[in-house]
Amino acid sequence: MMVLTDLARTTPQTVNEDHPVDEARQMxxxxxxxxxxxxKTPTLTMETLASLTxxxxxxxLKSFGEQHMxxxxxxxxxxxxxxGMISAADIGRVIGYGPRGMPEARSFADIxxxxxxx
Length: 118
Known about the structure:
Layout: E1 4-6, H1 21-27, H2 31-34, E2 43-45, H3 46-51, H4 54-64, E3 68-74, E4 80-87, H5 88-94, H6 108-115
Parallel strand pairs: 2-3
Antiparallel strand pairs: 1-4, 3-4
């Protein structure tokens, strides 16, 4: 079951500095256009994530009202690094939300209706 993109093991997409600007714009969206400031981004620690059931995870994500949540872990230098991201859509796919051919769940509420019955 894959419900987390582990940034410690997956290299994010980048664009070389010698790439033409027009092509780079087509490949990437500006972070400023879609970015949520880190201090406003809901997060879970790897330790907390490891202790949650899928039902608990869905309730936690729903409480933040977001489609995505960062997963963090402490570093040896008393800092925090981003370890990955949890996606509501990925959870929905893993738990088999909805019949095949139907649109994916678009909210945590949709997934919760299936998993916890309300």
